[in-house]
Description:
Blueprint: H1 2-23, H2 62-65, E1 68-75, E2 80-87, E3 94-103, E4 109-119, E5 124-129, E6 140-146
Amino acid sequence: MRNLRTAAVAAIVLTAGALLAGCTSTAPAPTATRTAAATNIPGLPAGVQQEASLPTDIPNDPAARATLQLSTCAKTDTGWKAGGTIANPGKKPVTRTITVFFTTEHATVIKSGQTKVTVDAGKKQDWSIAPAFAAAPKTLCVIRGVG
C-alpha cells in the first residue's frame, strides 16, 4: 500500500511538472537598455529638454563662492547667459572654476556650464558662461559651485 501511495504522489508531481513546463516561455530574458535623452518631459515648454548629463565633481569652496557676484542672467540669440565678477582678496593670483546650472522656474536643470577664470591678487575679473540650448521662457541661473 505504501508503494502505491508513493507511486501516486510521484505521478502527480511529474504530471504537474509537465503541465507547468508547458506554460513557460522559451523566449530569451529581456536585457537592460539605456533610454535616449528625454525629449518631451511633462511640464517643460515645447522644445525645452532636461539636461541629460550633469557634472558630478563640482569644485565648491565657500570662501571663494563669497567673492563671486552674479549680475547677468539673460536670454541670448542661442540660449542663455550668466555672468558677473569674481574678486581675489588674496596676495597671489588664483584660478577659479565657476559652475552654473540653468534651470526652469520649477528647478529642472536644462543646461549646465563651466568656466575657469584667473584673477590677479587684489583685483576683480569679469566672467561669463553662455551655452547654446533651447531655454525656457523663465530660465534661472543657479551658481552651483565656485572653487
